[in-house]
Write a structure and sequence with these properties.
88% helix; mainly alpha; elongated; 0% strand
Length: 264
């Protein structure tokens, strides 16, 4: 009983969490510093990064298409449900389009890719670590940053904005189809509302968020997979932690960027 009380001591729990967090912050900072140093060796990582980007793009199209379609349709249905008599229908179209471009598109795409690509990178790098493939690469004098890490991180950072554009386009199309059925809205009303409320800043805002989301989805899972230990169990923990951490970081970045970029 005494051991249980000691283990459950709030001071020990809080202190352990703080020390563990500080440890990871320090290691992650060094990890990012090494990535920045490795950018100058672009002749090594550029071609693998392009190959990784193509694989990520083609492999993610279907799941992004399905998710964006449902997101656009649900947003349109919800807008139709909330609109009250006397309010022009094109107001709903404006709300749907601006919401999908500025918020739902980039955030939902990032969360999907955090699960799909983040888990993949963490599992691959974790397996390479526990099977000593990374140690073998380093023993040959090859840089793991330029040969293993940067191609994955750059590919994710580049493809998340591209997939976000695709998701926004699909979701707006799905929202238009749903609006015709739920609100009996004509195409002219939908287009008028979308153009009336649209601002070019929304596109810049969406792409900026997507780029930072891509960096988070690329760096955090690669860091956790690269530092995995204790065999298959450690790879599983690293993969789970990578998906959770990347998803939480995406939501945190979304809040920070909204507070910074949407200042009146």
């Amino acid at each position: 009983m005494a051991k249980i009380q000691v283990a459950m001591d709030p001071r020990r729990l809080v202190g352990g969490a703080v020390l563990n967090g500080a440890h990871h912050v320090g290691r992650l900072s060094l990890f990012v510093f090494e990535l920045i140093r490795g950018l100058v060796e672009w002749r090594i990582w550029l071609r693998p990064a392009i190959e990784q980007a193509v694989t990520i793009g083609y492999g993610s199209l279907f799941i992004v298409f399905i998710t964006a379609s449902f997101a656009g349709a649900v947003t349109s249905l919800q807008a139709g449900y909330q609109i009250t008599p006397g309010i022009p229908l094109y107001f709903a179209a404006g709300v749907v389009v601006t919401t999908l471009i500025s918020e739902l598109g980039p955030v939902m795409t990032a969360l999907i890719l955090a699960g799909r690509i983040g888990a993949r990178n963490a599992a691959e790098l974790g397996t390479m670590r526990v099977t000593e493939q990374i140690d073998a690469l380093e023993s040959l004098g090859r840089s793991t940053v330029t040969h293993v890490l940067l191609p994955r991180i750059v590919a994710v950072a580049l493809m998340v904005p591209v997939l976000n554009v695709f998701a926004v386009g699909v979701s707006i199309f799905a929202g238009w189809i749903a609006a015709q059925g739920s609100m009996d809205m004509s195409t002219a009303d939908f287009v008028y509302g979308a153009r009336y409320f649209f601002k070019p800043f929304y596109v810049w805002y969406s792409l900026t968020k997507s780029f930072f989301f891509g960096l988070a989805i690329g760096i955090v899972p690669c860091y956790m997979g690269f530092n995995a230990t204790h065999g298959a169990e450690g790879v599983g923990r690293a993969t789970t932690g990578a998906v959770v951490s990347a998803s939480v970081l995406v939501l945190l970045l979304n809040t920070i960027l909204a507070s910074v970029m949407l200042e009146p």
